[in-house]
Design a protein that fits this description.
heterodimer, A: about 250 residues, alpha/beta, Rossmann fold, six-stranded mixed sheet, four-stranded antiparallel sheet, 7 helices, about 35% helix, B: about 325 residues, mainly alpha, ABC transporter involved in vitamin B12 uptake, BtuC, two-stranded antiparallel ribbon, two-stranded antiparallel sheet, 14 helices, about 80% helix
Chain lengths: ~250, ~325
């Protein structure tokens, strides 16, 4: 049984058809790269999966359970073990690490007051054990704005792992990061796999993320135009596929 | 060394503010020792500062949530009017207090609904509400004061504005208690956590499943409740309600919050700073007059203090 099974998913925003019948599966502890040019529908697909907005047509199953699009939401997705780390990094930069890790899910007493010892200790644990944060001076009370770009991704990924996500979705995890920071993010993704969780990331370049992936799904103009196993395609060939598809569809449109 | 820098990072701004306040105090003590070395002036501060201070707590939270509220002086007047009217009918402080707080909460609810559900920016909604509510008050009261006959002999009077131990004004204890409660709500409660995140990154808050609209509505209701409470205790203290109540408080309240170190940009702020700021701003006028300067100096020195304080806060926060 696949973790996620999406069949013939359509999504339109008014007149714009963002997705036109996408089939997409995610297996257990699989790392999938969702690739394609700008406007291919990658973000739309993962936003549907993470409950940001509903699809217009199609079927979606999570852990074998059929999803009713009108009742599906971000909270519901969290409950079903799907966590998303957004491109714009859903972090409050002026807030401390512990506030970011526990946002919306802090352990509280029955009056809604946050249990500070627990959140501080748990945050410490997540930083050390889940993410291997070794940088000195980073404490649960550090503000996220003091962290580097890669470390911020780490906070968001650590948050997802801690809350027992079975699938972690990363939206452009390495965009605008230096090589050193990209390596940090790759290490976090490897941690995800090592813990037996699945991961879908979207990216429109594959160069630095090729080696951590199991499978690539190529989207173009709202459709899946190719599925490749990492073992059976080289990095260069995959890059050629992306270029080939985006240019051929442009050709067709003319 | 490390502990020192962490300490400075976390408490540096608060300490800076305290130092500014103490320097000012020493300055006043030197320039007018007859006034500032006697306890009377401090009792007087504890009597008058809490009204602005309590509303400044509300504004602190509103600003942290990334919004603004200009309507609270009118909410203060409206709630004071309801309190005075109800007290005239019933003679019960408790009953009047409940009615007045209820009306205040409704005013805050209106603000919140217009801002979140209709989507009008808070500065516009609350600007409109500030005229609207003042207008309602003027129409209802026909511009006349109301005396709260017999309120001074009620238990409620002692409870709200009486002198604890024959010297300490009860409203100063209310201000302290509310400051502590607001600190806990803001920094140790789920509600405050949501406020901080919404002010910091509203989209992130939405994506993480926080109910942004409900939180903002509650913030405006909280602000209005605090303004209503200030209106009630001011009416009780003066044993009179008057239709221009609160009109002078708009700018001093904002001055308090900004001098305290809360930013305009949301996501961060300080209750401690607002608490100290209230006394700083509240003692300024008395200090200036006692120092022998004419009242003409007041605004100049107000302005100077605000500009200096805000500059310091900004410079310090950019360093980290």
């Amino acid at each position: 049984m696949n973790l996620v099974c999406m069949k013939n998913i359509h999504k339109s925003f008014g007149e714009v058809q963002a997705l036109r019948g996408v089939d997409f599966d995610v297996g257990d502890s699989e790392i999938i790269g969702l690739i394609g040019d700008n406007g291919a529908g990658k973000s739309t697909l993962i936003k549907i999966l993470s409950g940001v907005f509903p699809y217009t047509k199609g079927e979606m199953y999570i852990k074998g359970q059929k999803i009713n699009p009108t009742q599906y939401s971000v909270r519901k997705a969290h409950k079903m073990g799907i966590e998303t780390v957004y491109q714009e990094q859903a972090l409050g930069l002026k807030q401390s690490l512990w506030r970011n890790i526990f946002l919306g899910r802090q352990p509280t007493n029955s009056f809604g007051f946050i249990q500070m010892n627990e959140v501080r200790n748990e945050t410490e644990k997540i930083m050390r054990e889940y993410l291997g944060f070794t940088a000195g001076g980073v404490s649960p009370d550090s503000k996220v704005s003091t962290l580097s770009g890669g470390e911020r991704q780490g906070v968001a990924i650590g948050r997802a792992m801690y809350f027992e996500a079975d699938l972690i979705i990363l939206d452009e995890p390495t965009i605008a990061l230096s090589v050193k920071e990209v390596n940090k993010v790759l290490r976090f993704i490897n941690q995800v796999k090592a813990r037996g969780k699945a991961c879908v990331y979207i990216s429109h370049t594959i160069s630095n993320i090729y080696f951590v992936s199991d499978r690539f799904v190529l989207l173009d103009r709202g459709k899946v135009v190719g599925i490749y196993n990492r073992n059976s395609i080289s990095e260069d060939d995959l890059a050629d596929e992306i270029i080939h598809h985006s240019s051929s569809s442009e050709f067709k449109n003319r | 060394m490390k502990i020192y820098s962490v300490f400075r990072y976390r408490y540096g701004r608060q300490l800076g503010l305290l130092v500014v306040a103490l320097v000012l105090l020493v300055f006043f003590m030197i320039t007018s020792p007859k006034v500032f070395l006697r306890p009377d002036i401090y009792v007087s501060f504890l009597t008058t500062v809490p009204f602005v201070g309590i509303m400044a707590l509300g504004i602190t939270i509103v600003l942290i949530s990334g919004e603004i509220d200009l309507s609270f002086p009118s909410v203060m007047a409206l709630s004071g009017y309801v309190f005075a009217t109800m007290f005239g009918f019933t003679g019960s402080v408790l009953l009047s207090l409940i009615c007045s707080l209820f009306i205040g909460a409704v005013a805050g609810l209106c603000n919140g609904l217009l801002i979140t559900k209709i989507g009008i920016p808070s500065i516009i909604v609350t600007l409109g509400m500030q005229f609207l509510l003042r207008g309602i008050v003027n129409l209802l009261a026909e511009g006349l004061d109301m005396t709260l006959k017999g309120v001074a002999s009620t238990l409620g009077y002692s409870f709200l504005v009486g002198k604890v131990g024959g010297i300490l004004p009860a409203q100063s204890i209310w201000f302290l208690a509310l400051s502590i409660i607001m600190w806990y709500i803001l920094f140790r409660h789920n509600f405050g956590n949501n406020i901080l995140f919404i002010g910091d990154n509203e989209n992130a808050a939405r994506m993480m499943g926080i109910n942004v609209d409900r939180t903002k509505i509650l913030v405006f209701m909280l602000m209005a409740l605090l303004a209503a409470f200030a209106g009630i205790i001011d009416s009780v203290r003066m044993r009179t309600w008057w239709p221009t109540m609160g009109e002078g408080y708009l700018m001093t309240t904002f001055a308090t919050v900004f001098v305290g170190g809360t930013s305009m940009f949301g996501g961060e702020g300080t209750i401690f700073g607002t608490f100290v700021g209230a006394f700083l701003i509240g003692s300024l006028e008395a200090g200036i007059v006692a120092a022998g300067l004419t009242g003409f100096w007041t605004q100049f020195i107000y302005g100077l203090l605000i500009i200096i304080a805000v500059t310091l806060h900004t410079v310090v926060s950019q360093r980290y």
